[in-house]
Structure prediction request, 493 residues.
Amino acid sequence: MDVQDITTVLVFLVTFLLAYLATRRRRGVPPGPPLFPIVGNLPQLASRDVLGRLNGFRKTYGDIFALYVGSELTIFLNGYDALYKTLVKNGTLFNARPRSGFDALVVKNPGIIMAHDQLWKEQRQFIQAAIHRVCMNNSGEALENLVHREVDALVEEIGEIDGQFDIKDFINVAIANVTCTFLYGTRFNFGDSGILRAMSTLRDSTEDTMTVTTLCNCFPALGKLPFDIVGAKKIIVRYHKVVDYLRQFLPKSEEEETKGEPTVANMYLDKVVECVRDGRKNTFTHQQMEITLFDMFGAGTETSANTIRWGLLYLTQNLDVQERMFHEISGVLGNKQPSYAVRNQLPYSHAVQLEVLRCRTVAPLGVPHSVRRDAIIDGFLFPENCTVMTNLHSVNVDSNLWQDPDLFHPERFLNEALDEVIVPKHFIPFSVGPRSCLGETIARVEIFIFLVTLVQHFKILPVKEGFSPDMNGSLGLTWAPENFKIIIEKRKH
Ligand code: HEM
Prediction:
């Protein structure tokens, strides 16, 4: 061995040792699987069944465990108690979002979902009030009217289809119409290529974003490699494509308040103008408006549309459930449109909606949280700024909370007489605490009215009797069913 060889070996050993030390489990943090040098727990996370993997870690290490994604500490909260203790009991401490280098590159303005502190508080309060005014006037009647208009258009459009077809694009446009009407005052025809492209671009991004962001945050150099080897630039380009597309629907007037219909965008622009006029320090700017509305579009379309598609998929697999729903609906409503309030008279149909949200909650890992300062929960250290993942799916499949959690069984949400819905406190598909889903009411109204109306009008059948579709779906930022086809038959009332 010459001097050069010895130097090479020494450099290798020192690099390895430094990498090992950098990925060593910090004292006091929750337990977790053994670490690999440099990559931490990434190899153990690389699986097509990430939720199953996390469930396995929970069995071994308990409800609170920690993984190192590269050298980044990520603490996973599993089960209702751990989530409640952090997100609700210590809500102010846990209401931040991680802000990593790659995210900042993709999103120059944090919008609402990734915002912090004063920015987040002001945006959230404003958007909640705007939605309340635009959608919830007259106890939610405006929202219901909007949902009725879109589901009626859907029923008419698909009513003419003969043979098997994929309902995905139809549901996507119908739900995008609800969201875009209250956000921008805009709606689209079925088959509109612009909105369908925006939604599929969004879906493609959500599928890749988790993996690419994780890799680029651990190893920033990866994002700068030539030929975009890990796909980082592709994500940025896709993101901007959707933001650019939505920009055309924003109100144009910059100097004057809008006199148009009350939409969230119009109200936002009025707020920007008012703040500029008053010279107050605030977080309302044109750039912020663009991203906050983009966030609302992103969070409000994929989620509800995918839940409705999961619901239809389950109904094709559980025709007895569908028949029971139909009899309940036709007995109470006949041909009349369902209101959201009527769910109390349709307990079984309501229970079906809840069971779909439990079995295939579309945001199984929520949105990452972060800790404002060092915290001790259950004796474990949560270091300031570490990433905290909320495994909502773990609550939904917890056999201590639900009997046979893997079964699709709507009755679990009914009382013994089967005439009233009972929602247990541990049913939290929209998360809990100050950062819980801002669109929960909208989503519940959309999903209930869409599923009830579709079952009221059609028998929804699998393409072949006994056909077993893929029920695993694909997991990105949201959990979507794989594409599937159905056959529909018009119901006679
Ligand atoms: C089935 C439908 C939906 C589900 C299951 C769902 C679930 C969630 C979850 C789990 C979070 C993360 C909460 C946390 O950080 O702890 C979230 C956040 C959010 N959701 Fe939803 N969501 C749905 C539909 C909607 C709709 C329809 C909208 C708006 C129109 C919406 C807007 C938002 C926003 C803006 C946030 C971020 C809140 C914040 O950071 O303060 N969501 N949602």
